[in-house]
Amino acid sequence: MNKYELALVLNGRLEEDAKAAALEKVQGYITRFNGTVTGIEDLGKQRLAYEIQKQKEGFRYFIKFESEEAACPNEVEARLRIYEPVLRYLIVSDIAE
Fold first, then answer.
1. What domains does the chain contain, in order, with CATH numbers?
2. H or E segment and range at residue 88
């Protein structure tokens, strides 16, 4: 089982229900490609170091997930790239236990 961590920044202007729906959709992408979400760390709304798409603030999350499929992170990344509420993302392999 391969372990991954997704660092995610959502648009800071999202309402509470839109933010929850966006996070739910990201989790759906992970499960659709045979991944299992093992943990979500909500870092809350934070000021960004620089503007991204004219946004100065964003909601930050760390999502840990596992998958036996090597293509899972690539497929999730392809969906996040075009998903509008996502300002930035980064998926890394979590080798530390």
1. 2-93 (3.30.70.60)
2. strand 86-93
pTM over 0.85: yes
Orientation of helix 72-82 relative to helix 16-32, angle to 10°? 150
The dihedral formed by the CA atoms of 57, 19, 74 and 30, expressed in degrees to the nearest 10: 150
Burial class (CB within 10 angstroms; exposed 0-12, middle 13-18, buried 19+) of 64: middle
Longest dimension (CA), the chain: 39
Amino acid at 70: A
3-state helix, strand, coil in the chain (%, to 5): 30, 50, 20
DSSP per-residue codes, 43-62:
EEEEEEEEEETTEEEEEEEE
Quote the percentage of the chain above a pLDDT of 70.
Answer: 98
For the segment 42-79, what is each residue's pLDDT rounded down to a tens digit?
999 999 999 999 999 999 999 999 999 889 999 999 99
